[in-house]
Design brief:
4-stranded parallel β-sheet; binds magnesium ion; 11 helices; 11-stranded mixed β-sheet; alpha/beta; binds threonylcarbamoyladenylate
């Protein structure tokens, strides 16, 4: 790793202004949000957006989230509707991305939405992120600031490690408080569809809307799509949803060594990612979790707090991602509240392809 010549900069007002000037000139700026660090570029400038795909090694069919400073700015780019209005008023600024039809005549680069008629919009909670957008006076397209398919960054050092000199400036704003990417909700249909679980849960959204929303089951869709290639007569409603979350079909958020989920013991040579008490985790063949060297075990939250676990997830996976270990054994995380999003990321990280 060569992080010496990388432009990690403290997040003063003056430096945010410098970063904004870079964005205006077509540069790439990594910046903190409450979810993960974003790799930002001017969403109106196709060349700048292309640099994002290049830096991440990202397949160009995977669209980006556009970050705006407030609802007023969101409306410049979206065919705004009532559902979006309710959700934005309730959850913005915050970790919710709203997928909505593009407004006619908007000037976003086509690369941002990868040719889809919709865009994903979000107002981040971190004040300095909103200042960056305001000072640059343009919407900022920003995926997570990591190589495509790898773990999302929750600290400026993670960004430097992952992207090196491909980024012009990293605004260092400490660790991300949420630690998982935003919840994504599609409001282009009558019934909204949750495309990606995150800190804002399905239940919270349903409560605010006063009605049920659909859950996008991408694993089913992968299987359905495979099935349809072989048996085109089976084309179903699910397949009409397939293009809606084009970035979510494959292995993602992955460390380099394998993950073993819902582990109830530790196999020889494995590292441990615990949740709650690991007192009863034994090592097969003899020994207990506490016998593992300090660097070979992490605990997402000893108290079993899902918020703490989410905030620690990516940093701890990085820490344990060492080829000296055969795999990372991950203890069971309850599938409720924020646990749904944590398990979603873990399943993707564990996927074979
Ligand atoms: O928390 C976050 O959302 C972070 C921070 C930086 O804001 N960003 C982030 O971006 O996670 P990224 O690029 O890693 O994930 C964007 C996701 C992808 O899965 C993509 O497919 C989906 O958003 N997406 C973007 N535009 C879309 C659209 N028009 N329709 C459906 N999905 C869309
Ligand atoms: Mg990402």
């Amino acid at each position: 790793m060569n992080t010496n010549c990388i432009n990690i900069t403290s997040i003063s007002k003056e430096n945010i202004q410098k970063a904004a000037a870079l964005i205006k000139k077509g540069g790439l700026v990594a910046f903190p949000t409450e979810t993960v660090y974003g790799l930002g570029a001017n969403a109106l400038d196709g060349k700048a957006v292309a640099r994002i795909f290049d830096a991440k090694g990202r397949p160009s069919f995977n669209p980006l989230i556009v970050h705006v400073a407030n609802i007023k700015q969101a409306k410049e780019y979206a065919e705004w509707n009532e559902t979006a209005e309710i959700l934005a008023h309730h959850f913005w600024p915050g970790p919710l991305s709203i997928v909505i039809d593009k407004r006619q005549g908007e000037l976003l680069s086509d690369l941002v939405s990868a040719g889809l008629p919709s865009i994903a919009l979000r107002v981040p909670a971190v004040e300095e992120a909103r200042q960056l957008i305001e000072f640059s006076d343009v919407p900022i397209a920003a995926p997570s600031a990591n190589l495509s398919g790898k773990l999302s960054p929750t600290s400026p050092e993670h960004v430097a490690h992952s992207l090196g000199n491909a980024v012009d400036m990293i605004l260092a704003g400490g660790s991300c408080s949420v630690g998982l990417e935003s919840t994504i909700i599609d409001v282009t249909e009558n019934t909204p569809i949750l495309l990606r679980p995150g800190a804002i849960t399905k239940e919270e959204i349903e409560e605010v809307l006063g009605s049920a929303i659909e859950l996008y089951q991408d694993n089913d869709i992968i299987d359905k799509n495979k099935d349809e290639i072989e048996h085109p007569q089976n084309i179903s409603k699910a397949s009409s949803l397939a293009p809606k979350a084009p970035g979510m079909l494959s292995k993602h958020y992955a460390p380099n060594i394998p993950l073993r989920l819902n582990a109830v013991n530790i196999l020889p040579g494995e590292a441990l990612l615990a949740f709650g008490s690991d007192r009863f985790m034994g090592i097969e063949g003899g020994g207990a979790a506490k016998d593992l060297p300090q660097e070979q075990r992490c605990n997402l939250s000893e108290e079993g707090d899902l918020h703490e676990a989410a905030a620690n997830l990516f940093a701890m996976l990085r820490k344990l991602d060492d080829e000296a270990y055969k795999a990372i054994a991950v203890m069971n995380i309850p599938e409720k509240g924020l646990g749904v999003a944590i398990n979603d990321r873990l399943r993707r990280a564990a996927a074979k392809e």
